[in-house]
Amino acid sequence: MKLTRRGVIQAAAALGVAQTLGCATTPKAGPGPEAENPKGKPLSILILGGTRFLGPALVERAKERGHTLTLFNRGKTNPGLFPDVEKLQGDRDPNKGEGLKALQGRKWDVVIDTSGYFPRLVKASAELLAPNVGQYVFISSISVYKELTKANLDESAPVATIDAAAPEEITEQSYGAFKALCEQAAEAALPGRALNIRPGYIVGPDDGSDRFTYWPLRVARGGEVLAPGDGEDPVQFIDARDLAAFIIRNVERRTMGVFNVTGPTKPIKMRTFLESVREVTGGDARFTWVETPFLEQQKPTPIPEIPIWAARTGAEGGLGRVSIERALQAGLTIRPLADTVRDTLAWFHTLPPERQDKQRAGIPADRERELLAAWHQAKGTGTAKAAE
Ligand SMILES: NC(=O)c1ccc[n+]([C@@H]2O[C@H](COP(=O)([O-])OP(=O)(O)OC[C@H]3O[C@@H](n4cnc5c(N)ncnc54)[C@H](OP(=O)(O)O)[C@@H]3O)[C@@H](O)[C@H]2O)c1
């Protein structure tokens, strides 16, 4: 399956990429709200999930801010994580096992739902918890938008639609539309008390998808690097630790509503992104910019999987430039890209060697060589050197 950008934004989490969190780095505080937002009353926070990628970043941030936590999950993903945190076992699906029973009769200030993909399940937890929580935070996605070709999509842009009774399967078509219905289910169960967060690519240490990680690893390896497009395509992503800091900050402020949450704070293009990565990794990487139409003609897969990037003229050209104005107004801060690159590489190198050898995203080395050779032939540039 060729993964479109909409598809890859959901793929790691929704398709259940397993991760090794045993070697998780200790998240650092973001450039943070502490000065402007001194610690208030500690909150009791329930996370529906909490143990794969964004969840742990939220736990770390909430702990730093003095809040108390409860995690609700099936006990399958990284069960040894956070031995000091209360854990309740069950299933998001009320029809499976004990379902949501463990949540009955308990009260929390806030619930953060990182694991909702289907409206039936979000409705079930939101309705059950509505009398017993002050706020429901639902982690949605920027994939909710209907017209992904458009630049500057803001929170008022139309969302994709799907029949609520459609089969509960995550596909490239269904993911965003289901997420939109999940947002609506949260808002319907807790009118005026829902905070719907629409992140772009979530990246950084503990990201088991390797989509962002591909670039620091590839650039660090050096030599001629296939760089997609003309260097002018915008890219957006957010370090999970910055996303967690934004969420916890707005939980503390009791912010409600809908927010696109991605970075960086100032737009960045693919060329600047790759050059910034090289500044961190050092080495002799040389970028050969391979035009989008050439990539589109490739067979058997038009545009081999090139993570994070999307052509601004393509079907999902809006996804690298959604509006984050609202989030910035609500205190979104983004750490320097160099920190994310450095920390991601450091984390990746702590993984077992066999895992490091099996990268989960990016262009395999032999395919990249083939594509570069074909590109040079088409352009008559002959050698990699000539393309620098
Ligand atoms: N990755 C991206 O680039 C990206 C971009 C945009 C939006 N998002 C969204 O961000 C969220 C982040 O996901 P995450 O995986 O990092 O969150 P997480 O909270 O770190 O991990 C997912 C948690 O859900 C639990 N879980 C899964 N199925 C469950 C079930 N049926 N019942 C109870 N618990 C269940 C898992 O534990 P058990 O397996 O032990 O149950 C795990 O603790 C997702 O909603 C995703 O759609 C991701």
TrEMBL record:
<dbReference type="InterPro" id="IPR001509">
    <property type="entry name" value="Epimerase_deHydtase"/>
</dbReference>
<feature type="domain" description="NAD-dependent epimerase/dehydratase">
    <location>
        <begin position="121"/>
        <end position="261"/>
    </location>
</feature>
<dbReference type="InterPro" id="IPR050177">
    <property type="entry name" value="Lipid_A_modif_metabolic_enz"/>
</dbReference>
<dbReference type="InterPro" id="IPR036291">
    <property type="entry name" value="NAD(P)-bd_dom_sf"/>
</dbReference>
<protein>
    <submittedName>
        <fullName>NAD-dependent epimerase/dehydratase family protein</fullName>
    </submittedName>
</protein>
<dbReference type="Pfam" id="PF01370">
    <property type="entry name" value="Epimerase"/>
</dbReference>
<dbReference type="InterPro" id="IPR006311">
    <property type="entry name" value="TAT_signal"/>
</dbReference>
